[in-house]
Amino acid sequence: MKNYLRKHLQNHAIYQSARQEFTEGAKEMILLDANENPFDWPYNRYPDPMQQKLRSKICEWRQVKPDELYLANGSDEIINQLILAFCEPGEEEILICPPTFGMYKVAAQLYQVDLCEVPLTKTFQLDMPALEAAIKPHSKLCFIPTPNNPTGNRFATEDLQQLARLFPGILVIDEAYAEFSPEVSTLSWQAEYPNVLVLQTFSKAQGMAGARLGMAFGHKTIMEGLHKVKGPYNLNDLTLDAVCDQIENQQDRVKEMVVLMTRERERIVAAIEDLPYIKTIFPSDANFFMIRVDDSQLRYQQLLDHSIVVRNASKNILCDNCLRISIGTVSENNQLIKVLRTLL
């Protein structure tokens, strides 16, 4: 497996707290290593720096090995750490395909890494000839969310596989919305495409956006690189406990919520598809959908006036006069439909 890590980090030692030298049995020891408040008080001790209990549950749940998993404070932190660990500013570049998730560009700019943008086709699919022409020997990271944000559609599997074969660096497939999509996760690609790293999150279908838990799955060499730039205690005990409970006890409920949101998405689309100011409703495999209207700023403001907040996606390339609408509860969706019908 190729070592993609930045040169100056390849011999960089991972920072370890003293607590990392011990196993779970450390809880039975006298802990005088971390300058904590020693008295019996909620959360007086630092959390497990290696998140061993949660990692074990996720590995069993997702059928991956422990050295193929990395956890962080939301996928946003992983995106930042990928750039920090693997991209040399001024020498290497990141490839993205707008319209896409805005944090990829923000993070590239934050770390002063060059960005190559290859727009999607008019049907919001990957432009494979343009991508192949844009890939260079110094292309280091490529971020592809599928289903895509803000457009909501999946990309063709054969295009993603071709990109994995062509790309000389790490192909990051962001599956934040994968649970709403019928396609098989790209987690199954790890053996064939070791340069593919998969992002998943507890913020969407799992309903835990406030807990901030992002997961990266990939080859152990890439995971080792991420650990080089990891803070010693990057996840707190509240999150660790909540996510363990979620995996153990809430997955049937999560499946029910996904079915309900998918059904509600189709119901909303059917209810508004004939409204004359809506020009296009784009197909979606996510818990949101995008529409093109006659005047996105006007319709956005009208919805705000009715206390409904949507996303004006018009600043994105190919998304002129587009609004992105998330799926709410049944009563919220009923109100959305009612208001949209009054805007005639």
Question: What would the keywords be for this entry?
Answer:
single chain, Aspartate Aminotransferase, domain 1, alpha/beta, Aspartate Aminotransferase, domain 2, about 350 residues
Main pleated-sheet profile: 7 strands, mixed
State the CATH class of the largest domain: Alpha Beta
Distance between the termini: 58 Å
Strand content: 5-15%
Mean of pLDDT: 95
Helix and strand run:
HEHEHEHEHEEEHHHEEHEEH
Structural commentary:
With 344 residues, this protein is of the alpha/beta class. It has 2 domains: 243 residues, Aspartate Aminotransferase, domain 2 (3-Layer(aba) Sandwich), CATH 3.40.640.10; 91 residues, Aspartate Aminotransferase, domain 1. Helix content is 34%, strand content 15%. The protein has a 7-stranded mixed β-sheet with strand order 1-7-6-5-4-2-3, with helices on one face. A 4-stranded antiparallel β-sheet has the order 8-9-11-10, covered by helices on one side. Helix 5 links the parallel strand 4 and strand 5. Helix 1 packs parallel to helix 7, helix 2 packs across helix 3 and helix 8 packs parallel to helix 10. The chain starts with 51 loop residues before the first helix and ends with a helix.
Summarize this, please?
The chain is α/β, with parallel strands linked by helices and 344 residues long.
In terms of topology, how is this protein built?
Layout: H1 52-62, E1 69-72, H2 74-86, E2 93-96, H3 103-110, E3 114-117, H4 128-134, E4 139-145, H5 157-166, E5 170-174, E6 196-201, E7 214-217, H6 220-228, H7 237-249, H8 251-272, E8 278-281, E9 288-293, H9 296-305, E10 311-312, E11 322-326, H10 330-342
Parallel strand pairs: 2-3, 2-4, 4-5, 5-6
Antiparallel strand pairs: 1-7, 6-7, 8-9, 9-11, 10-11
Helix pairs in contact: 1-7, 2-3, 8-10
